[in-house]
Amino acid sequence: MAIQGEKNQIAVEFQNFKKRFGTKLVHRDVSFQVRKGECLGLLGGSGAGKSVILRSLIGLEKPDEGQILVDGEDITKMGERDLIEIRKKVAYVFQNGALFDSMSVYENLAYPLRAHTKLNEREIADRVHEQLDEFGLAGNEKIFPANLSGGMQKRVGLARSIILQPKIVLYDEPTAGLDPYNTIRIQEMILRLKSKGVTAIFVTHDMPSVFAVCDRIALLLEGKVSAIGTREELERAPEGKLGRFVTGQEL
Known about the structure:
By secondary structure, this protein is of the alpha/beta class. The chain contains ten helices and ten strands.
């Protein structure tokens, strides 16, 4: 019974995940779990396949072998209709914000509500304005993405990604290229979502942000998760693979 209870606390699980692109083997045996309400930092060198992990979690990539479980459901065998339901539950925050250039900020946030809910326009307006207020973006409803700074685009992209109130959020380099002010704003937003019980995977090279928002850190190396642990565990074992990666030492 205890084992079943532990399984109920797992939001995401990769089991023996393997992925090849042509002759290039990216993932040979990736296995890890993310607990409900946890933020897991996913580290690795360029080309380690961190974004492949995120894309696979919403069905944009299919493993050659292995399973991906979301709330206990294996998504690797799902068709597109079932994956649409998974994508309501799992939000992807793209590095560049991925906003629709032809839509205003308001229309960008309203789009997923119109596509995936039965809310009327008044209810959509209330949800959009509530989201913009919470993210410090009120007053920008009529502005188009091209007229926003990079930091503002990322904040709007995050606001749109979670407007369907997902259980899990995937962050793909959300602070890349940002100044310290906007980096801290993104960290605050992630922590606010975390305080509401949202589970997250945080892909980045920004170590200060990892330490600010993540409960545990996992290292992708040579096609598998070669180390995983808390910041405290990392500091107690600085000579380990994770500690050497974080401090820029040769692995």
